[in-house]
Amino acid sequence: PAPPAPTHPGRYLMMPTRRRTRAQERAAYIAAERRLNAQDRARAVPPTTPPTSPQTSPDRYWGRSTDHEGDDDDPPPF
């Protein structure tokens, strides 16, 4: 006897079935895009480091002393 004819001839020609739902595909796409964006942002911004030399005040730069008490002859600062 001959084998029965297949019920779905050319089954290999059918569309492939989905592995994930559309919502799952979209969520995975968004998560992957966010991960790539975060990596790009991390590469673009150099890490901040504290300054190597202490900041100098303008008084120290010009060689003025800040502990000057002032005389009565000094004019008021404007």
What would you note in describing this structure?
- 36% of the residues lie in helices and 0% in strands.
- It is an all-alpha fold.
- The model has no long low-confidence stretch (mean pLDDT 77).
- The longest helix is centred in the middle third of the chain and has 23 residues, at 22-44.
- The chain has helices at 22-44, 58-62.
- The chain is built from two helices and no strands.
Instruction: Assign a percent range to the helix content.
Output: 25-40%
The rough form would be described as: rod-shaped
Give the H and E element order: HH
Q: What distance separates the N and C termini?
A: 115 Å
Q: Report the C-alpha radius of gyration, rounded.
A: 38 Å
Count helical runs.
Answer: 2
Q: Please provide the count of β strands.
A: 0
Q: Pick out the low-confidence regions.
A: none
What amount of the residues lies in strands?
Answer: under 5%
Sheet bearing the most strands, described? Answer: none
Mean pLDDT: 77
Structural class: mainly alpha
Features:
78 residues, mainly alpha, rod-shaped
Produce a short descriptive summary:
The chain has 78 residues and is mainly α. The chain has helices spanning 22-44, 58-62.
SSE diagram, text form:
Elements: H1 22-44, H2 58-62
